[in-house]
């Protein structure tokens, strides 16, 4: 079977996705180290203490998601710009150097070489290499769009999302002697990434997938894309305030953060309604049903995890008790899974048949991977919720000793690990399915002019607004 | 019906408006933060303590100002809660305080046997200075006082009960036990302890808790006979 990609440089995306799978698997292993430590089994403490496992777990997440975004961009941009990637060899260099920096950083964590700043643990020396790497990536994407035949809204939103993410990395590289300043600008990176510009990236990938999978007219989908990212920024920028309640910042943030955070679920709700409505209106069956499941699942789960559970603990009256407890871990896990892990997995599910020309999405593995990962993650969220709420009432409101409370939660950490095992089963199936697709096939560019990268069963019909 | 260009205008306009508002609020916040965080009181020790905090990723387990990993206690007001001496003793050998329970990394730079007495003392003092400075940041009321505690709310605070307590008791024991409605909440309150236990039993217990009750969370503290006597005598007055 012939692959349906139109541009042979798109196949670079395959290697980014393969790196994703590897890093994701590694992230899960470190997650289990953390889970077992919470159950009271910290036998690895001498070699991999909790803070090492934790930094590795969260950084691997960030790196595999960014790798996925980059792979998605290398896949999407040629199609949107209707030309091959600019300097594809440079994209290879960029992938290899990204992985090298990642590996050095993670090995460094194990020998106490890091900065103790949550999510931004990468040492300053390596930060600069990250900057150079991301600039290289952005240059390739920019030049491809610049020289391309057309500049679509989807491509532009994706590019500006990636560019802003790169720019917002910089405030996290300033050194402050005062802890409160350190914390203030750390959230410029972390919050404005995940509740700001990353949503541009997610929205653009979502819009690309919906165009491909539902057959709805691009103009309609892109119009609503603007509305959704508009609501995201309207709520998300000032919503940064929910990190500025209790960290030495003025009291007015309680009001501003509270109000704008309360609006954040609306942006996610809008995204979920938009995706579901487009899929309904499309009304035609894309053969790659799994890619559509991940796409719609992403829109819905990001509302539940990022929108609903975020709202559940960002009201200042609630946050005064839940701030700094496992309630944060509850929200964090489902939010990252729903919004970002699922969009990358949706993109991989869509791109693999296109890249390899094989339709492995029809087997049971792909479907089981979807359900077991999602049920597993919901179970983990439930376990974190029980632990978090118990911690709030016993320790924060009841005044019990921290360690006494944590030891009473060990049984729930067992539930957490069980649910994580289910998630892991699903991820194993996903990776197995990924491997069974095999390597991307060489594109014969002369015979493939009508494919359009589309897996639609029928040709497009005109759409009304 | 909404057109694409209207949608684009909504996105760009809304983003610009919120972006400008955020930047203006940031300027005001940056102007207020030095006073709210007592930047004047940020001595060299505090800054060095902050560097120790960062360099060893302490927030990879602990939380501070509520930010961190929820695996180890919130440290924003730890100096107020435990006292400096308790923290200094704890840092030197964390596991001896909570034997067989959740572990903290034992850092060489706090250990006089490894880096020398002077260096270890300095690192401990820097860490404690940093934590003490953090405890004085205006955090808009975080962490909130527990509001579901009936016992603590009804017990009268009686500071006179602590009068006559030996220094060791104030610095170490008090970090976990309450006397007269004040002190830590790890071990039981010690009011009336002399009515519950014989003097000899208390002496054996403090000298080697594990020998009396294997598996107990009460740590064994190195102390000379005179200090042990003083503490037992003091407990008799409660």
Q: How would you briefly describe this protein structure?
A:
The complex is a heterodimer of chains A (465) and B (238). By secondary structure, chain A is mainly α.
Please describe what this structure looks like.
The complex is a heterodimer of chains A (about 475) and B (about 240). Helix content of chain A is about 75%, strand content about 0%. Chain A has about 475 residues and is an all-alpha fold. Chain A has one domain: Cytochrome c oxidase-like, subunit I domain (Cytochrome C Oxidase, Chain A, Up-down Bundle), CATH 1.20.210.10. The longest helix of chain A is centred in the middle third of the chain and has 36 residues. In chain A, about 60% of the residues are buried. With about 240 residues, chain B is mostly helical. Chain B folds into 2 domains: about 100 residues, Cytochrome Bc1 Complex, Chain D, domain 2 (Orthogonal Bundle); about 80 residues, Cytochrome Bc1 Complex, Chain D, domain 2 (Orthogonal Bundle). In chain B, about 55% of the residues lie in helices and about 5% in strands. In chain B, helix 2 crosses helix 7, helix 4 crosses helix 7 and helix 11 crosses helix 13. The model of chain B has no long low-confidence stretch (mean pLDDT about 90). Classes of the chains: A mainly alpha (about 475), B mainly alpha (about 240).
């Amino acid at each position: 079977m012939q692959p349906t990609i139109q541009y042979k440089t798109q196949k670079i995306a395959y290697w980014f996705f393969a790196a994703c799978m590897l890093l994701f698997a590694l992230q899960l292993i470190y997650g289990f180290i953390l889970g077992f430590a919470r159950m009271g089994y910290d036998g690895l403490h001498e070699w991999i203490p909790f803070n090492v496992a934790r930094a590795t777990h969260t950084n691997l997440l960030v790196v595999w998601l960014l790798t996925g975004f980059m792979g998605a961009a290398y896949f999407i941009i040629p199609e949107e710009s209707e030309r091959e990637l600019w300097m594809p060899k440079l994209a290879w260099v960029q992938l290899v150097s990204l992985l090298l920096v990642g590996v050095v950083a993670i090995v460094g964590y194990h020998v106490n070489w890091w900065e103790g700043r949550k999510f931004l643990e990468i040492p300053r020396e390596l930060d600069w290499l990250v900057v150079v790497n991301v600039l290289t990536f952005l240059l390739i994407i920019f030049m491809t769009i610049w020289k391309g035949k057309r500049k679509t809204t989807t491509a532009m939103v994706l590019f500006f999302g990636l560019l802003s993410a790169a720019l917002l990395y910089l405030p996290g590289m300033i050194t402050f002697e005062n802890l409160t300043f350190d914390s203030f600008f750390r959230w410029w990176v972390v919050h404005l990434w995940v509740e700001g510009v990353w949503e541009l990236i997610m929205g653009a990938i979502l819009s690309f997938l919906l165009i491909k999978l539902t057959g709805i007219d691009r103009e309609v989908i892109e119009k609503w894309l603007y509305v959704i990212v508009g609501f995201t920024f309207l709520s998300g920028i000032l919503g940064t305030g929910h990190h500025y309640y209790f960290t030495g910042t003025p009291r007015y943030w309680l009001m501003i953060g509270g109000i704008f955070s309360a609006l954040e679920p609306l942006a996610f709700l809008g995204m979920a309604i938009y995706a579901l409505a487009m899929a309904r209106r499309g009304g035609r069956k894309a053969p790659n049903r799994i890619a559509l499941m991940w796409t719609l699942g992403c829109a819905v789960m990001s509302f539940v995890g990022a929108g609903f559970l975020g709202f559940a603990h960002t009201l200042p009256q609630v946050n005064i008790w839940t701030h700094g407890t496992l309630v944060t871990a509850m929200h964090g896990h489902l939010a990252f899974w729903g919004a970002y892990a699922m969009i990358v997995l949706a993109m991989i599910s869509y791109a693999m048949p296109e890249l390899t020309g094989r339709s492995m999405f029809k087997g049971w593995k792909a479907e089981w991977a979807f359900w077991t990962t999602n049920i597993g993650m919901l179970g983990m969220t439930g376990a974190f919720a029980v632990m978090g709420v118990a911690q709030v009432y016993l320790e924060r409101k009841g005044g019990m000793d921290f360690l006494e409370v944590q030891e009473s939660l060990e049984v729930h950490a067992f539930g957490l690990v069980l649910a994580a095992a289910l998630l892991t089963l699903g991820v194993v199936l996903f990776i197995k399915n990924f491997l069974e697709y095999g390597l991307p096939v060489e594109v014969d560019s002369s015979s493939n002019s009508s494919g359009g990268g589309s897996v639609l069963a029928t040709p497009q019909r005109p759409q009304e607004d | 019906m909404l057109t694409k260009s209207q949608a684009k205008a909504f996105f760009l306009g809304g983003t610009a408006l919120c972006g400008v508002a955020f930047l203006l609020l940031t300027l005001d916040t940056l102007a207020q933060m030095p006073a709210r965080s007592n930047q004047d009181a940020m001595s060299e020790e505090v800054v060095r303590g902050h560097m120790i905090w960062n360099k060893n990723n302490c927030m990879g387990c602990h939380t501070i100002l509520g930010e961190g990993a929820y695996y180890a206690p919130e440290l924003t007001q730890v100096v107020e809660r435990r006292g400096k001496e308790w923290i200094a003793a704890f840092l030197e050998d964390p596991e001896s305080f909570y034997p067989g329970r959740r572990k903290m990394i034992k850092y060489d730079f706090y250990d006089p046997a490894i880096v020398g007495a002077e260096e270890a003392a300095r690192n401990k003092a820097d860490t404690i200075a940093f934590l003490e400075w953090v405890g004085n940041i205006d955090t808009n009321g975080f962490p909130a006082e527990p509001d579901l505690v009936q016992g603590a709310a009804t017990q009268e605070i009686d500071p006179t009960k602590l009068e006559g307590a030996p220094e060791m008791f104030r610095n170490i024991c008090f970090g976990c036990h309450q006397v007269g409605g004040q002190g830590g909440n790890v071990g039981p309150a010690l009011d009336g302890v002399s009515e519950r236990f014989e003097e000899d039993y208390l002496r054996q217990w403090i000298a080697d808790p594990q020998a009396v009750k294997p598996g107990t969370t009460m740590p064994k503290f190195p102390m000379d006979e005179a200090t042990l006597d003083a503490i037992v005598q003091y407990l008799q007055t409660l």
